[in-house]
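To illustrate the input format used throughout this study, we show a single complete record. The first block contains the structure-token representation of the backbone; no residue identities are included at this stage. The design step must infer an amino acid for every position from geometry alone.
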């Protein structure tokens, strides 16, 4: 199992055991507290840096085992680059780099958060967030470990800094974010035989412990609402579909809520339009949008965000049996609009169509943001570096883009031009669920737009960033938890002061 991480803050002092992690500015420049700690080593670090051509560039590291003059088992010096250029997101990354340099079997480590010019307590808290995110591992199903894979059962990390008490207070909200990201990663990483719609709904229901109001809608309740688009996707599965509505009321009583909607396809075979076998195992992650919404609501409740928020997830399994939806079928959505099914593998937009309409009509939110691993076309367009942002309101788009830059969970604005409407016109229904080979991500967004009416709305297509991306300083997990930090930062700009 992954090690249990115990994180604490303390004044700067030289530890007598464990791993010691220090930081330096480019040019091997140390903060005053760090220089004091290094007096015991004499010129050891300077000589080792020269031998290894270590200059302190951002993210680089110098590793010394059993350094003379110190009682610690290992000394790691991490470069921070030019301190004046560092932003909040950079300190998060530095924390991740530091955690990554601590050996898996180490049970204790001290990270000294000190650089020339000192580090503000909130930046120390950012660093601690990076430590927490980098420490995550999903290995609960491993019963045996190969040599070199062993881990300490418990790891104690001390963040040594000036103003430890202030940094600890600043970290409280970031700890809530970390827990939200971890919950999201756990959900995305779970296999589909464990996390099917009913079980996903049960886990979302655990948010009640944090003061979140949770409603779970079964098939009968959704039939009564007329959610035939969502139900049509799941009708070929042995696992019944669910919709979960989560509400956090931390704002003023009369304030309209902000709403977040997630696609929750717990496994996607493609249905009758079945996917190729190669890579289909990744489709356990086709519920990453819903996972993000659950993780976000956890974060908001845990940090007692001063906002009214609604989270809604449509949970289905797109499977194949004699009852499965067919190409050529026509479904009537909750809104009354009809959709011709051309490709049963374009199912996420059908799920979201009903949930978007429901949330908009029931809660009349200030705005809606949906997240979905919606199209492979976006992966082709943007790769795995950015998510696609579609938005019908300039101010809303700007707020999301700003939060994106602050958290480094990047988005790129895509068009919603009316010219694309022709692509989804159907001969037999109000629209069809695909628009041809070209502009697939845009065509899917245009379908969703038909179910938001005049509500301010943003759609995030996260197909390229939700799972299976290259490792980063703060994530070595298959499921990334993408979106929780971005949307929490976005909400911070809206909170009641």
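Output of the design step:
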């Amino acid at each position: 199992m992954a090690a249990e991480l115990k994180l604490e803050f303390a004044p700067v002092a030289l530890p007598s055991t464990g791993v010691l992690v220090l930081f330096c500015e480019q040019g091997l420049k140390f903060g005053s507290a760090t220089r004091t700690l290094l007096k015991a080593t004499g010129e050891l670090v300077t000589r080792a840096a020269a031998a290894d051509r270590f200059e302190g560039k951002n993210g680089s590291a110098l590793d010394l085992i059993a350094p003379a003059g110190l009682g610690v088992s290992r000394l790691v010096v991490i470069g921070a680059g030019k301190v004046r250029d560092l932003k909040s997101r950079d300190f998060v990354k530095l924390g991740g780099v530091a955690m990554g340099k601590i050996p898996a079997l180490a049970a204790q480590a001290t990270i000294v958060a000190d650089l020339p010019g000192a580090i503000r307590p909130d930046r120390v808290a950012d660093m601690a967030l990076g430590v927490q995110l980098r420490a995550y591992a999903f290995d609960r199903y491993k019963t045996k470990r190969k040599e070199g894979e062993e881990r300490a059962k418990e790891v104690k990390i001390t963040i040594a800094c000036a103003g430890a008490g202030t940094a600890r207070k600043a970290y409280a909200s970031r700890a809530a974010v970390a827990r939200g990201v971890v919950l999201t990663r756990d959900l995305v990483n779970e296999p589909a035989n464990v996390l099917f719609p009913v079980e996903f709904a049960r886990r979302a229901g655990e948010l009640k412990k944090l003061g979140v109001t949770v409603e779970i809608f079964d098939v009968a309740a959704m039939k009564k609402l007329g959610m035939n688009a969502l139900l049509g996707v799941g009708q070929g599965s042995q696992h019944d579909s669910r919709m979960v509505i989560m509400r956090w009321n931390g704002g003023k009583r009369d304030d309209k809520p902000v709403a977040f909607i997630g696609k929750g396809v717990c496994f996607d075979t493609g249905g009758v339009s079945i996917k190729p076998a190669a890579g289909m195992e990744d489709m356990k992650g086709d519920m990453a949008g819903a996972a993000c919404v659950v993780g976000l609501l956890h974060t908001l409740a845990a940090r007692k965000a001063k906002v009214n928020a609604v989270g809604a997830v449509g949970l289905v399994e797109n499977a194949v049996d004699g009852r499965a939806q067919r190409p050529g079928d026509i479904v009537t959505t909750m809104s009354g609009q009809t959709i011709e099914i051309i490709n049963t593998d374009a199912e996420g937009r059908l799920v979201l169509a009903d949930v978007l309409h429901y949330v908009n009509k029931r809660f009349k939110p200030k705005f809606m943001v949906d997240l979905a691993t919606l199209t492979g076309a976006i992966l082709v367009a943007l790769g795995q570096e950015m998510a696609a942002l579609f938005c019908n309101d300039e101010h809303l788009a700007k707020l999301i883009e700003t939060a994106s830059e602050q958290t480094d969970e990047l988005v790129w604005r895509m068009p919603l031009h009316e010219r694309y409407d022709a692509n989804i016109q159907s001969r037999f229904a109000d629209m069809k669920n695909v628009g041809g080979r070209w502009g697939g991500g845009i065509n899917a967004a245009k379908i969703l737009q038909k179910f938001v009416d005049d509500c301010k709305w943003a759609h995030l297509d996260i197909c390229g960033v939700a799972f299976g991306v290259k490792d980063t300083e703060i994530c070595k997990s298959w499921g990334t938890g993408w979106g929780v930090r971005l949307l929490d930062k976005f909400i911070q700009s809206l909170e009641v002061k």
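Structural context for interpreting the output: The domain at 4-162 is CATH 3.40.220.10 (Leucine Aminopeptidase, subunit E; domain 1). The two ends are 41 Å apart (CA to CA).
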